[in-house]
Amino acid sequence: MLRITGGYLAGRTISSLPGEDTRPPLTRVREAVANILNPYVEDAAVLDLFAGTGSFSFELLSRGAKSAVLIDKNPKAVQVLRKNAAKLGVEHLVEIVKADALQMIAIFEKSGDLFDIIMVAPPYFTGLDRASMEKLASGAILSPSGIVVLQQSRKERFNEAYGSLVLKKTYRYGDTRISTYVQGTEG
Questions:
Q1: Element at 102 (helix H, strand E)
Q2: Domain enclosing residue 106, as ranges
Q3: What b/e string do you get for 138-168 counting C-beta neighbours within 10 Å, with b at 16 or more?
Q4: How many other CB atoms are there within 10 angstroms of residue 69's CB atom?
Q5: What is the domain-level CATH number for residue 131?
Q6: Percent with pLDDT over 70 in the chain
Q7: Number of compact structural domains in the chain
Q8: Which among 33, 58, 72, 164 is most buried, taking Cβ atoms within 10 Å?
Q9: How far apart are CA 102 and CA 1, in angstroms?
Q10: pLDDT tens digits, residue range 154-180?
Q11: What is the rounded CA–CA span in Å between residue 70 and residue 60?
Q12: Distant-in-sequence, close-in-space partners of 18: CB < 8 Å, separation ≥ 6
C-alpha cells in the first residue's frame, strides 16, 4: 500500500500493482516532487503519461490540482487506477485512459488540450523516457507557464533541452533522477 503524503487526502492509502512491471515512486520521491511542483499545482490540469498506480496524480490532486488525465496501456494498471480513484473519492476529477502514452500525446496535440503539469515516469531503460520527451518537444500540449517532470534512473541519459522544453533543474534521490522542464527557446 502507498500512502498519500500531503494535502486533504494525506494519510490515505492506495493500492499498488503486484509484480515488477510497475514501479511506483518511493514515498520520499513522490513527496519531493509534490513539493517541487507546489508553485504549479493550484488548479492545475495534470497529465500522467505512464500512470501505473496513479500515485503522482493522486498526490497532486490532494494538494490542489483540479483534474488529472491518467494514461496507462497495462489493463491491470487501469483497473488499479480506477480502484484507487474510487477509494479516494476523486473519480470526478480524473479521466483514466487505457492507451499508449506516445499516441495520446499526438491526440492531445490535435485536440488542442493543454496541461499545466505533465508527468513522464515510464519504466526505466525502455527508451520511453526519451521518446516521450521528443514527442513533447514542441510544447504544444504544455500550458505556457506549465512544467514537465521526467523521472528516470540516474544511469539513463537526459538532455538539457528537448525542442522548446528547456531543463529547469535536476534532483537526485538514490537511483532516481527527477528533471524539470519548462517552455524556453531551443538551444
A1: helix 101-111
A2: 2-183
A3: ebbbbbeebbbbbbbeeeeebbeebbbbbbe
A4: 20
A5: 3.40.50.150
A6: 94
A7: 1
A8: 58
A9: 28
A10: 999 989 999 999 999 999 998 999 999
A11: 12
A12: none
Q: Cβ of 89: how many Cβ atoms within 10 Å? A: 10
Strands 161-162 and 67-72, bridge-based pairing: unpaired
Q: How far apart (Å, rounded) are the C-alpha atoms in residues 108 and 158?
A: 24
Which three cell numbers mark 27? 514515498
- Tell me the pTM: 0.94
Nearest to 74, CA basis, from 96, 44, 43, 45:
96
Please name the residues in contact with 108: beta carbons below 8 A apart, sequence gap of 6 or more: 47, 115, 141
Task: Give residue 116's Cα distance to chain centre.
Answer: 11
What distance in Å separates the CA atoms of residue 174 and residue 168, rounded to the nearest whole number?
Answer: 20
Query: What letter does residue 85 receive in the DSSP assignment?
Result: H
- Residues 150, 119: Cα–Cα separation, whole Å: 6
pLDDT tens for 5-26 read: 999 999 999 998 865 454 556 6
